[in-house]
Amino acid sequence: MAAQLRNLRASTGNPTYRDMADRVYFSAGTLSAAARGDHFPTRAVVMAFAEACGADPEEWERRWYQTQKPPAPASPPSRWPPPAAPPWPPSS
Question: Region Disordered: what ranges (predicted)?
Fold first, then answer.
């Protein structure tokens, strides 16, 4: 999420975090921390960050929820169950 926020900010000309904070109800430090990625930002911070950059907050809310989804389970190997291992040491 942090990389996406940094890209959003860059795409709008890299406004200062202070200028962004003047447009929304979060501090410059909070907005900067969201872009640093030390912790996953709250939905409200992501939406405010988007609003401060002139982006659609609803789109960024969707992005936030998408990143909250658990990863899909790994698919099983192509042959399931795997073949039995050959005896060791090999018989002569």
Answer: 60-92
Q: Is the pTM value of this prediction over 0.90?
A: no
Burial degree of 44 (CB within 10 A; 0-12, 13-18, 19+): middle
Answer yes or no: are the C-beta atoms of 49 and 20 closer than 8 Å: yes
For the chain, which ranges sit under pLDDT 70?
Answer: 69-92
CB count, 10 Å around CB of 28? 14
Neighbours of 51 (CB within 10 A): 17
Task: For 55-87, give the secondary structure using H, E and C.
Answer: CCHHHHHHHHHHHHCCCCCCCCCCCCCCCCCCC
- Run of H or E residues at 34: helix 28-36
Give the model's pLDDT for residue 33: 95
